[in-house]
Amino acid sequence: MQNHSGRNLTYVIVHDLGRAIVKGHYDQHNPFPIEAALCTQYGASRSVLREAVKMLTAKGLLRARPRQGTWIEPEENWNLLDPDVLQWLLERKYSPQLLVEFTEMRLAFEPMAAALAAQRCQPEDIQNILAALDRMREAEKGNDDPLSSDIAFHVSILNACGNRFYAQLKGMINTALRISIRLTNQRKGVPLASIRDHKKVVDAIMARDPEAASEAMRALIVEAMMLIQQSKADELQKAASIGSSIKSAQ
Amino acid sequence: MQNHSGRNLTYVIVHDLGRAIVKGHYDQHNPFPIEAALCTQYGASRSVLREAVKMLTAKGLLRARPRQGTWIEPEENWNLLDPDVLQWLLERKYSPQLLVEFTEMRLAFEPMAAALAAQRCQPEDIQNILAALDRMREAEKGNDDPLSSDIAFHVSILNACGNRFYAQLKGMINTALRISIRLTNQRKGVPLASIRDHKKVVDAIMARDPEAASEAMRALIVEAMMLIQQSKADELQKAASIGSSIKSAQ
DNA sequence: ACAAGATTATTTATCATATAAATTTAGCAC
DNA sequence: GTGCTAAATTTATATGATAAATAATCTTGT
Hints:
- 2 copies of one chain form a homodimer.
- Chain A has helices at about 10-20, 35-40, 45-60, 85-90, 95-120, 125-140, 145-160, 165-170, 170-185, 195-205, 210-250, and strands at about 60-65, 70.
- The model of chain A has no long low-confidence stretch (mean pLDDT about 90).
- By secondary structure, chain A is mainly α.
- Chain A has 2 domains: about 5-75, Orthogonal Bundle (Arc Repressor Mutant, subunit A); about 95-240, Four Helix Bundle (Hemerythrin (Met), subunit A) (Up-down Bundle), CATH 1.20.120.530.
- The first copy, chain A, has 11 helices and 2 strands, in the order H-H-H-E-E-H-H-H-H-H-H-H-H.
- The interface of A and B includes residues 14 and 102 of A.
- Chain A binds a DNA duplex through helix 3.
- Chains A, B: InterPro entries: GntR_C (IPR011711), TF_FadR/GntR_C (IPR008920), Tscrpt_reg_HTH_GntR (IPR000524), WH-like_DNA-bd_sf (IPR036388), WH_DNA-bd_sf (IPR036390).
- Chains A, B: It holds the Pfam family FCD.
C-alpha cells in the first residue's frame, strides 16, 4: 500500500473531525464551526474543508444549510454501519455499552451466516475456513497472531455464506474485535477462545448441518459477550470505588 | 419538509452518478469520466463535481488518485448498508436476487430484535407497537396505507429493542419493503400479511416471551421471502419463455 | 536494440477569490 | 405590535490558477 488514502489533507481532516464529532466535542454550547473558522483551524482552503464536510455529511454525521451553518445530526441518523463511523465510535474510551450492542448484533447475524454457509458453501470456502482454523492452531503455538487468526476465522464464514450483506460486515467485525480485545485486556499469546469450540462450527458446516453450525457459532459469541460484560462490570465497579473514595475523603 | 436536500445541485449529481454506478454504467470499456468531462456533462463547476465525487467516495463507490483518474471500487467495497446505496441498488430493475439476500439479512436480525424487545421494551415502546398494529387494522378497512403501516410495525419493534445498531436498520427496512412491494406486484388495499400473524409478535412481546416473539417474527419474514422467491421464479420463467420463443422463431 | 535516466503530459489536490442563493435578523413605517 | 423592507450571515456555485503525483514518452549512452 503506497499512497495510503489518509495522507491527503482532506482525509486527515475527515478523520479528525469525525472523531471529534462522535466524541461529543460539539454541542449546543459549542456548536459546529462555520467554514471560515474550520479553514483557520486546519490552515486549509475552503475547497478542502467543504469536501471533508461533504464526506461526513454522506456518512450521516453532519448537515448544512445556507445561512444556518453546519450542525451535527442527531445520533440516530449516523450511519453506524459505516466502517469509519463505527471505528470512530468504538475508539472512544469507555464505550463498552456500544460494544455490547454491537455484539448483540453479531449474535443475530453470525449464527445465521454459519447456517447459510452450512447450506451452500463451496469447496474453496471450506478451504478458507480450514486455513483460518489452522492459523488459530499456529497462533496457539505462538507462530501467528491470535487476534488476527480469530478475525480471519469469522471473516471466512461471512465470506462463505453467499450473501453480499453478510460479507459487508467483515470490516465491522475486524474493527470491533480489535477494540474488544483492547477492552477485555487480552494479551498476545493468550488464546481468545478454544480451538475446540471453533472447530465445532467448522465440523457442522462441513457436515452440512445448519442448526448445529448456528448453535456452535452462537456459543462462540455468547462467550465473547460474557468477556465484554465482565470488563464492563469491572469498569463500573472501578468508577464506583473511585466515587466512594472521593465521598469518604470529604 | 421545506428545502429537501435533493434540491441542491450537488445532491442531484450524487444521486444521478450513484444510480449510474450501481447500474454498471461504467466499466473497463467505459471508464469513469475525468472531472472536466463530468463538469461538461452536468454543466456544473468543478467544486460541485468534486464534492459529489467525494460523497460517493465516502460511501465506498469511488476512489481517486492524481494522474490515474477516478474509478469504480469493486462491488465488495460498496457500503451496501448505506441507505442511499441500498436504495440505488434495489431500484435497479430485475434485482430480486439482492432482495432475497436482504431478506436473508432481515431473517437474522428482526427475530432477534423482537426477542430483545420482549426482554426490555418500555411502556412507550409498547404504545408505539400497538399504534402501528392499529394502523394496520385501519389499513385493512381502507383508512390507511397498508404498506406504510406494515413498515411502521417493523420499525416500532426495531425502535423498541434498545440497541442502536438495530435502530439503524429502519431506513433499510423502509427502502427494501417499498421496493419489495413493487416487485411482488402488491397493490394498495391488498393486505401484505395478516393482522393475526402480526399480532402474535405483539402478544409475545407483551407477554415478555423472547422465544415466541422471535419465532412469530421469523414466520412473518419467511412469508415475505416466499413472495419474493415466487416473483423471482416468475421472472425467470418469463425470461425463459421469451428465450425459447426467439429460439423457435429462428 | 535496450536499459537508465530525464522530460513531458495528464489528472487529481489544493488554494484563492468572487458571486449567487437562502434565510435569519434588524430596522422602519404605520 | 404588525407587516414590509433592507441588511447581514452563511453555505452553494463558479472560475482560474498552482502544486503534487505518476504514467507515458523521449533522450542518451552503451
